[in-house]
Design brief:
heterodimer, A: mainly beta, six-stranded mixed β-sheet, B: mainly beta, seven-stranded mixed β-sheet
Chain lengths: ~110, ~120
């Protein structure tokens, strides 16, 4: 069985400040890791994914994430956020069978 | 434009009625999924299909049914047996579910409210 824990349900931050959204996972097998973003009343869209190789992954909109196998974490970061980054962010893991498990989400609110 | 469409965007149902949510994709993806999203609970998998004419139950399949007669279509029926159907329903697809490394593409969602 696999699980995902997003450690913060809400993260408020001021515009142009850095942000980190934390994600820990557990699995008995190797997994693939994903971050998705959801704007209000819309579907999810992929920000970035880690499959293998370099542990630092760069995604769209200036986001990046670092895979840490020893700490089973995949935290999402952005050095300077904009008002338009206000959204809900989901961490997800997927196993070889293709079954995906999503975290409960982190609501990022960027304040002016 | 390739993508996933879901209709309707908003749906109201009286208790005791079945209702069908539409999901269509023109991405030529083999795998399709239905999720239910409730506030603060993330996404929970209802059903998924890896190929036409085949589908499997997810974590919360009770009270729901699906069909996959065509590659591009994966409708979800919410039956009267579903005790708490008010939620936001998301359909997704991926090139293939095998291997686990393909990201999912999501539709815009259908918000179902039971009156």
């Amino acid at each position: 069985a696999q699980s995902v824990t997003q450690l913060d349900s809400q993260v408020p931050v001021f515009e142009e400040a850095p942000v980190e959204l934390r994600c820990n996972y557990s699995s008995s097998v190797s997994v693939y890791l994903f971050w998705y973003v959801q704007y209000p009343n819309q579907g999810l869209q992929l920000l970035l994914k880690y499959l293998s190789g370099s542990t630092l992954v760069k995604g769209i909109n200036g986001f990046e994430a670092e895979f840490n196998k020893s700490q089973t974490s995949f935290h999402l970061r952005k050095p300077s956020v904009h008002i338009s980054d206000t959204a809900e962010y989901f961490c997800a893991v997927s196993d070889y069978a293709g079954k995906s498990t999503f975290g409960d989400g982190t609501t990022l609110t960027v304040k002016p | 434009d390739g993508g996933i469409t879901q209709s309707p965007k908003y749906l109201f149902r009286k208790e005791g009625q079945n209702v069908t949510l539409s999901c269509e994709q023109n991405l030529n993806h083999d795998a399709m999924y239905w999720y239910r999203q409730d506030p603060g609970q993330g996404l929970r998998l209802i059903y998924y299909s890896q190929i036409v004419n085949d589908f499997q139950k997810g974590d919360i399949a009770e009270g729901y049914s699906v069909s996959r007669e065509k590659k591009e279509s994966f409708p979800l029926t919410v039956t009267s047996a579903q005790k708490n159907p008010t939620a936001f329903y998301l359909c997704a697809s991926s090139i293939s579910s095998s291997g686990g490394y393909n990201e999912q593409f999501f539709g815009p969602g259908t918000r179902l409210t039971v009156l």
